[in-house]
Amino acid sequence: MKALVINGKNEPLSLETRDEPRTGEGEAIVKIHAAALNHRDLWIQKGMYAGLRYPIIPGSDGAGLLIGSDKPVIINPSINWGDKPGHQDQQSFRILGLPDDGTFAEYVKVPASNIVEKPAHLSFEEAAALPLAGLTAYRAVFIRAQVREREKVLITGIGGGVALFALQFALAAGAQVYVTTSDGEKMRDALSMGARDAVNYKDDNWAQELQELAGSFDVIIDGAGGDGMNMLMNLASPGGRLVFYGATRGNPSNVEVRRIFWKQLNILGSTMGSPEDFDAMVAFVNRHHIRPIVDRVFPLAEGEAAMRHMDESRQFGKIVLKVL
């Protein structure tokens, strides 16, 4: 089979011929029609991810046909979550694409329990864009933050996959959603999707602008962390919920703890999601006929170009590889 392989730190994706995977007990093989990129793949390529091993076929997201039935399916990339719905098992949990070979290939082997029927209203390219980012966003919005109708929600860094799904999900739930970004075109796109307003987080007074627009927020969903965390806590309503699903800007240099206890804030972490979360997310997408935002589709052979496109952070939505 053809597969994209990372052979070492900072090495480009290489299109190679590999043996097709063989199943063991409880496993299934999917013939991949489309796969989507995540920043996780980029960090693996740059050697900035835990548990690295090379060579590796990256890719956590995929949609295709289940071998043996030809049923259109998507793959839940959250493997061995464990038996506690509140958190993943710290020893056995892993994400497809490292340490297991992932979806940037014509075929992939996964636990049979991680196969879910593809939403019928989605193309293979749209369906491939859904799993990892959709699951992360669903758990952050509904399981951790428990967003409700008419609540004011702030989503930072709009344009990335998780943030866009969070916007779509929160809007479908009837929330009033505001966003931040550093790009004027992304602002306009988010507003056209239904966001109430948008501000540029590179402006010195971005937090003041949000305060003037919305007052304060019942829920804040953030994947950046860094020194903006104190400003987010200041923007949160008393009793507000702040969900952090990433830390692309690293750790804050300080945290103003007084804001947390005086405003009785709920600081919540969120990573991926359980099998029940994934099923609920797919059901939600089906019920509301949500379509993932696809920024651009590359052929498998241009996988390295797709990675560089992601590295430039210009995308609005998911970057997808067309495999078949």
Question: How would you describe this protein?
Answer:
The protein is of the alpha/beta class. It folds into two domains: 2-130 and 292-322, Quinone Oxidoreductase, Chain A, domain 1 (Alpha-Beta Complex); 135-269, 3-Layer(aba) Sandwich (Rossmann fold). It has helices spanning 39-45, 124-128, 131-144, 161-172, 184-193, 206-214, 229-235, 257-262, 275-288, 303-311, and strands at 2-5, 14-17, 27-36, 61-66, 71-75, 78-79, 94-95, 107-111, 115-117, 152-155, 176-181, 197-200, 217-222, 236-244, 266-269, 294-299, 318-322. The strands form four sheets. Strands 3, 4, 5, 8, 9, 16 and 17 form a seven-stranded mixed sheet that branches. Strands 12-11-10-13-14-15 form a six-stranded parallel sheet, with helices on both faces. A two-stranded antiparallel ribbon has the order 1-2. Strand 11, helix 5 and strand 12 form a beta-alpha-beta unit. Helix 3 packs across helix 4 (161-172) and helix 3 (131-144) packs across helix 9 (275-288). It is globular, with a radius of gyration of 19 Å. The N and C termini lie close together (12 Å). The mean pLDDT is 96.
